[in-house]
Give the backbone structure.
Amino acid sequence: MSDDDAHRTDAIRAQLLATEHWSLLASRSSTQNEVLTRIGMLLTLMSAALVSIALVGQATAFGGLFPVFADTLLLLVVIVGVLTQVRVSNVAMEDLMYVLAMNRLRSEYLRLAPELAGVLLASPHDDREGVTRTYYFLGRRGASQIVGSSMLFSFVVNGALVGLLAGVLLTTSGVAPAIGWVVGVVCAAAYVAVSVVIGGRTYARFWREYRPADPSP
């Protein structure tokens, strides 16, 4: 192959890689926007449900069909919250998928233009260390990156909803309010803990089974 043919081939490769990169960026942005919209819908539904319960409670003097109304509405919100949490967790793994794919593309960029190695801040390596660098290339990621994540946010919101539902179910069934709310707090904490464990195991299992094509040196 002549030098001109080699340059032409490299140019075509770079164009194809860039097209794939933009496709991944668009898909990543779309999924992120979707999950943020879903979280916003959940918060709106939760707020509307709590206001509705308060208004109906005042109108019925918290008697009659109010317990059934409150329990049913809170159950609906919990179901929507769990479905939203499932989507948030799936999007977190999808985002990891996109980052790994784009790291592989950067590896090919550097093969075509090695002089760019000192310019790129995101990693060209498709392993755990490379992903960590791409997600946060200003230094080591701290606990605040996890505590402030959308996934943990959904865990806490749904935990509060589950605890509230448990407390309301017990209270409207005739159990002493103090006992009902203690059980509710325990249920909320247990839900958050179980969600964190499941999410952590899913993430750890992925890295155990994944084999990088270009690991960090």
Notes: The chain has a mean pLDDT of 91. The helical segments are 3-60, 66-112, 128-135, 143-147, 150-172, 177-209.
